[in-house]
Design a protein that fits this description.
It is built from twelve helices and ten strands. The protein has one domain: Metal-dependent hydrolases (TIM Barrel). It is globular, with a radius of gyration of 25 Å. It is α/β, with parallel strands linked by helices. The protein has an eight-stranded parallel β-sheet.
């Protein structure tokens, strides 16, 4: 009995010692691990673009009441010559915006795209009325059509079925855009990782941890591949309409695949909103890609925050090494500058946009 008691006391002491040793081991959550780099390399932060540029992807929800003088001052500080507000909404809301822009004297520097409402697609006159809306909006200054990701993902018809973005009832709208000579900027789906298991193999683990509403099941609302295929079918079905695939069409991490799509669909352009970190982690291949497809790439940012443009300029214009992205949950890796040529930069910054967006004048950038 005495031996058993001694053994129990020894076992208790051992477990306590092990626990104390374990407590001494440093621990932290993955979210907190973000040490400053000790690497000492040349740094060339850029706060103003080398050439005047056009941002084809921006959102200003209250532009009809916005202080446009302040916006223009911010644009000037960045060397941004033209900004495109994709949130025009359409109808009277769009006219209120374009009237305010014109009255402020900035109609050449602030362009507006219209939007359509797909949720009422079951209405018997929806197609006809939506085509009329596009005509009305263009007459009131709309320079293009923006399709949101909800229009093809979360919007449903009266039976609760997801409305595909290549639904034949929408086809006349896209045909009208081609007829009027305005581009369609379309955001379909989201990064493919949002559809994949939220585990240690998911590169977007931190983003999904911090933004759990972005997580999707494999069929929510459809497989990623299905939604992307619908977008490509749309492009092929309307060869006379110019489409701009937002966010590099969600292929910034597979530029070889994106290249085959651009080869296959000459009416498809892409813009770099919210994917600059993907380009910055593959600087050699990304530079090759942007050089090869220099006539098909537009500059876009997405959410408007003046200081965040600095990272875009640094990736595109410098040869800097190993610098961070401004949103760690988008990219926990470091980036490298692409050091693009002046020719490629000018095409990306404004020349390509001037080819496909009505009213953009190249001379404004020279």
């Amino acid at each position: 009995m005495k031996h058993l008691l001694l053994f129990a006391l020894f076992l208790t002491w051992s477990c306590s010692s092990i626990a104390q040793e374990e407590e001494k081991e440093p621990r932290m959550d993955f979210e907190d691990y973000d040490p400053p780099s000790t690497l000492v390399v040349p740094e060339n932060p850029v706060t103003s673009a080398r050439f005047p540029f056009l941002d084809v992807h921006s959102h200003h929800w209250r532009m009809a009441e916005q202080d446009l003088d302040q916006l223009i001052r911010e644009m000037d500080s960045l060397n941004m010559q033209v900004i495109v507000n994709l949130s025009g909404r359409g109808g009277k809301a769009l006219k209120d915006i374009t009237d305010h822009v014109q009255e402020s004297g900035y109609e050449k520097r602030i362009l507006v795209f219209t939007n359509i409402n797909i949720r009422s697609i079951d209405d018997p006159d929806w197609t006809e009325e939506t085509v009329k809306q596009i005509e009305y909006d263009v007459a009131n200054g709309a320079r293009g059509l923006k399709i949101y990701k909800s229009q093809g993902m979360t919007n449903t018809d009266s039976s609760g079925n997801r409305i595909k973005i290549n639904d034949p009832r929408i086809a006349p709208v896209f045909e009208k855009c081609g007829e009027l000579g305005i581009p369609v900027l379309i955001h379909s789906a989201d990064p493919k990782s949002f559809w994949e298991p939220h585990d240690e193999n998911n590169e977007r683990w931190l983003e999904l941890k911090l933004r759990p509403r972005r997580k999707r099941g494999p069929d929510d609302p459809a497989p990623w591949e299905t939604i992307i295929a619908e977008q490509h079918d749309l492009f092929r079905s309307h060869p006379n309409t110019t489409f701009i695939a937002a966010h590099f069409g969600w292929f910034p991490n597979d530029l070889a695949k994106l290249g085959t799509l651009l080869d296959d669909m000459p009416n498809m352009y892409v813009e770099c909103g919210a994917i600059i970190a993907e380009l910055g982690r593959q600087p050699r291949f990304a530079k090759q890609f942007l050089t090869k497809y220099q006539d098909r790439i537009l500059f876009g940012k997405d959410s408007y925050n003046p200081e965040e443009y600095y990272t875009y300029f640094r990736v595109l214009e410098t040869a800097d090494e190993y610098f961070p992205y401004y949103k760690r949950y988008h990219a926990f890796w470091r980036m490298y500058g692409l050091d693009l040529s002046d020719e490629v930069l000018q095409k990306m910054y404004y020349k390509n946009a001037a080819k496909i967006i009505p009213g953009v004048e190249v001379r404004m950038f020279e």
